[in-house]
Structure of SAM-dependent methyltransferase:
Amino acid sequence: MKIISDTNASPTQQLHSAITGFFITQIIGTVARLGIADLLAGGARDSDSLAAELGVHPGALFRLMRGGVTAGILEAVSERTYCLTPMGEGLRSNVPGSLREVAILLTDKSHWLPWGLLSEAVRTGRSPVQAALGSDIWGHFARNPEEGEHFAQAMGNVSGLVASELTHHIDFAPFARVADIGGSHGELLAQVLRAHPSCRGILFDLPQVAEGAKTVLESRGLASRVDVVAGSFFDPGIPSAEAYLLKHILHDWDDEASTTLLRQLHASAPSGARLFVLELVIPDNRNPDSSHLIDLNMLVLADGRERTEDEFRALLSATSWKVERIIPTRSGASIIEAVKA
Ligand SMILES: C[S@@+](CC[C@H](N)C(=O)[O-])C[C@H]1O[C@@H](n2cnc3c(N)ncnc32)[C@H](O)[C@@H]1O
């Protein structure tokens, strides 16, 4: 098998590589999950000593690491001895730009099982998540807190760059209260508050997630500046704030649910409140784009969707939010700034 980056590969070989892409996903997920990248942080190790430390099967670990070379995350420095490649470094925990939790999340049942039913999603136009997990994804996380924790941490992994772009483009100083709606464990809010010491924060999420946020915000020394509020954004009672953050929320929901959410937010917002929606915006052309893949992820997991600029404008204006500007950022996500009309 040739890997897909081999430009000399024939179309059949490229297709074969693409078809077996899930092998690579699982190899990377397993190296992340077992903590192998962290154990290689100090340099190359032989697979037998790693197997003894991890308590796993030595022969199978050797085969995994050999596969990790083909996946591009490991390099063989001698017989059965491996180190991380620059790409593999990103599987370490707590390094800038780490994607460790993302690799684990995407190979958790929450993602792996519904993706196995993609053809069902295409047949019906609905997420197969009930058939795959027995409930919606949020119920699955509530029943499987370890996976819920992976999800919250993976969201934190990808929040870093978005947060620095957000604080670069938007001055939050004029807002007394900034509320992150569906803010998970508060990584984004923490960065906004750090950049703007005069603001207070409100973190709003489902009860089981809000609990986890308290711990994270305490460890960041921000507990006294943030009110953590548990609830559902489909119900009345979203806290009042001068500025709202809605990052990677609307893409989880279809237009009907998004409309309910935006109306509830509108009802809770004081006059002149600003809404900052952070989402991928599907480009207005027919070129290949990663947003098309994330869009399928949303269909599979949650009946959600990625949207074009026109679709965001339509959704927001229908719920009385007036879009003032859309700022593309280097993170891939755009900042859609709207004001309560
Ligand atoms: C895709 S995550 C985005 C998290 C965070 N905004 C970020 O970008 O890192 C969606 C979030 O919405 C929360 N959520 C789902 N349903 C909710 C509801 N009905 N009310 C409030 N939060 C909800 C989830 O717990 C999760 O934290």
